[in-house]
Amino acid sequence: MITLEKPATLLNVRCILYCGEPELVAPELANLLKSVLHNIGVVLVGFGVAFIGRQIDRVFGIPRISSDYAVAAGCLLLVLGFLLRVWATFYFYERRMNVIRLEAQQALITTGPYRFSRNPLYLGGNVFIFFGAALLFGSPAALVITALHLPLVERCMRRQSSLRRKRLERRLRIFGHDPQ
Known about the structure:
Distance between the termini: 63 Å
Order of helices and strands: HHHHH
Shape: globular
Number of helices: 5
């Protein structure tokens, strides 16, 4: 019988079952694993958009982009986007925050990739991964689809920023400060 000194999480139990060792997984490793698994889905979505773009290219007879440089650039963008998103989601999980939320987060992260970009998740996924997949598939239509969806992403980012600002203004009023 295995006895554990610390409470077991689902990830730790899986590690025990698969690895056969009763040691708990370090929280950092668990957060890294969750970040990687979460972002594999984003890469798959990028491939899905590129696949749809390639089908549109075929229907309309649009020639494929066939260049070693395009493939290399696509691979580079995919890897950079994936790593940026893993880094950014790691910071979310480290602070016990949900990565996917319809409303603004309660906390503001200003370290890690967030010290360089206010929205590294969007930059890594909606820009790097989507454009990288489009180049890898050689799809002009996927490049256009990705470019056309960026204003929607910007609108989402502005909405989140506005919600954060309103929440901060409410907090300032509670403490007697006028945010104007």
